[in-house]
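INFO batch 0412 | record 1 of 1 | parsing
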Amino acid sequence: MDALAERVLVSVRRQRLIPPGGRVLAAVSGGGDSVALLYLLAELAEREAVALAGVAHFNHRLRPPASDADERFCRDLATRFGLPFVVESANVAEMARSKRISVEHAGHRARHAFFERAAGRLGACRVALGHTIDDQAETYLLRLLRGAGAAGFSAIRPRSGLVVRPLLRVSRAELRVYLASRQASFREDASNRDRCVPRNRIRHDLIPSLRAYSPRIVEVLAREAEIARADEEWLAHAANELGAKVVHSTTEGVEVDAAGLAALHPALGRRVARDALVRASGRAVGFDHIERLRRLAEDAPTRVDFPGCRAERIEGVIRLTARAGRGAVARVEPFVYRLEVPGEVSVPEAGVTISAEPAGPGLRGSLTCSRPQTAGKRATERVVAVAAAGPFAVRNWLPGDRFRPLGLKGHRKKLQDLFVDRKVSRAERARIPLVLDAQDRIVWVVGQGVSDDFRVTRGAASVLILKVRPFGG
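INFO prediction complete | emitting tokens
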């Protein structure tokens, strides 16, 4: 195996990007980075470290006829590797105009929705993208120039849902050397030289200038992104733990302990305040909104209106209630949390805390039978028993997610179809937490049902009790 492939394998294993032998789909645009990714994954597949499920290509139809030539190139490449080829196309420019968003944003949305569909079609548990350490540095600078907090400075994450980026510690130059050693061809995207695109100005002008101050500026910026990501993850975890004590869900909305919020360090207080506002209003909030809520916790005024909700401080408690006629719910940002066994995790985006613990001998004996089991009143919603081993991941729904609901005789069902059948509104779907095992299999759709794959039977090696309760309850 090539030395670069060995490095990539070490990175994949250390960061747990792909389960051993997991089926991974290579997203290939035709450019050098993604073509190198395909070659490297093929090497890992030869070692049986992963199973290469196929090649996915999305045609943005932004540069005809070049974009069609890119598609043909990727199809031929998949054929050469003997791999299935999945392709879709969309008029991204028209999508951007109709939704009044940037072409870059529209392209990102369309690509990632396609990745979900393609992975489901080929039974892949991961979709690998070819982002490099150079992309990481460019993204960090873009976020810096636009203004961002710790979450923004985290830049490109190694994993987001089923999307993984195994090359984030590899440079673009190293990939070109690797391709040359294999006499591998690739497509050059002329738009990458267009300096009207901010990223291209950073790539071709700013970073070369910064090298005069620091020859290893790309590595420095990528390291800063990694540090920011670790800091953000710790702060988010700490804010969740503290938020469970300060913020409580009620039938009328959300209540915040004013003194508790005021006593928090600003770094934690801002996160707790943001989560409380988002939960009450269902809308995105900005820095000014967060600071107004923090000031409300400290002193006058006693009432403040926010987008989608109203805050009123009464005897040390801030009550956040949705404003009449402002029920529109904004897009919920993707969330992923780790759930240990035994342990619990707060999910502010859903307003709940989820816990996991081994079933005791007495309870386990009462649960063991040939049929799937739940425990407790309204068990499908609050308490479930599952034949699974931790740790778990808790995240929100992604298009293309499927599982086997109890009672459907083993048939797989799209979560989207489940939500439609149960009349779950579009606004609420992204807030419903999913509990997944280490292989990314859905164990529990919280409040909606348990997977038949994890039913409790007599031969179950491990039985766990999963519980959900209102955040702060």
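INFO post-check: The chain has a mean pLDDT of 85.
INFO record closed
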